Known about the structure:
Elements: E1 5-12, E2 20-27, E3 30-36, E4 39-46, H1 51-61, E5 71-76, E6 90-95, E7 142-143, H2 144-147, H3 150-156, H4 159-164, E8 168-174, E9 180-186, H5 189-202, E10 211-215, H6 221-229, E11 234-237, H7 243-252, E12 255-261, E13 264-269, E14 274-275
Parallel strand pairs: 3-6, 7-14, 10-11, 11-12
Antiparallel strand pairs: 1-2, 3-4, 5-6, 8-9, 8-10, 12-13
Helix pairs in contact: 1-5, 5-6, 6-7
Amino acid sequence: MSRITARRKVVRLTAGENPTSREDVLAVEEPLEIRVNGRSLAVTMRTPGNDFDLAAGFLVSEGVITRNEHFSTARYCAGATVEGVNTYNVLDVSLAPGVTPPDPSLERSFLTTSSCGLCGKASIDAVRTKSAFPVTADPLQVDAELLTSFPEVLRAAQDVFEKTGGIHAAALFDGTTGRMLVLREDVGRHNAVDKVIGWALKEDLLPLTGTVLMVSSRASFELAQKALMAGIPVLAAVSAPSSLAAEFADEVGMTVVGFLRGDSMVIYAGVERITSGERTPQSVPG
């Protein structure tokens, strides 16, 4: 069994029937400490796998780096236990010469859980990070019928979810052709998005003009902000957005689509980017 999933003995109980014991598969959740140039920046609870992508995407989301050449090297720190065994849970990133290291105000004062991507921010001002890739002028037009196909494509590619039923996914789609460019899974929805953005950084694809970020969860403010930091013009989710995510999208010119299920959706912001035959869909009143 890989470090991504783990097996555990469980008891299945159905009302009116005798309990049965069996082995179940769970998604792994472990801490990852991200260091930059030897200095601890944050600790996040994540599913192991694509950790370099996670660290790179996290640094993009925090406004530290914007290009692949900014991300020099990354290595797991050895001797992370008393016995000197490498847990692969401490990752040290080296930035390229001349790249300004993270401001001390970015350092998280406590653990970031798998459900919170903003926990430990030093101040309210630090929550809103200025993007190097504004999306207001992105000319992308997404066909509504094409957009409704994305959730099924995402779900079919969720290998870990298929085994565990308990993990988030984020995928990047070409908004014109509908081709899925990359998919990442993680117990933390913000981690899954960072892994997608980190992959794109390493592929020299930033800014992600003309793309759609599809998530298997709700569309929170933190996910909308991460999308903006990577230059993604459309954020789509199978569930609802938060009020702040919708307000933020209006503010920065992003499109936010929620309840993308079957052949329907609800457009909360940026309705002009979604086309449906000869008609333009109507947005939800603010």
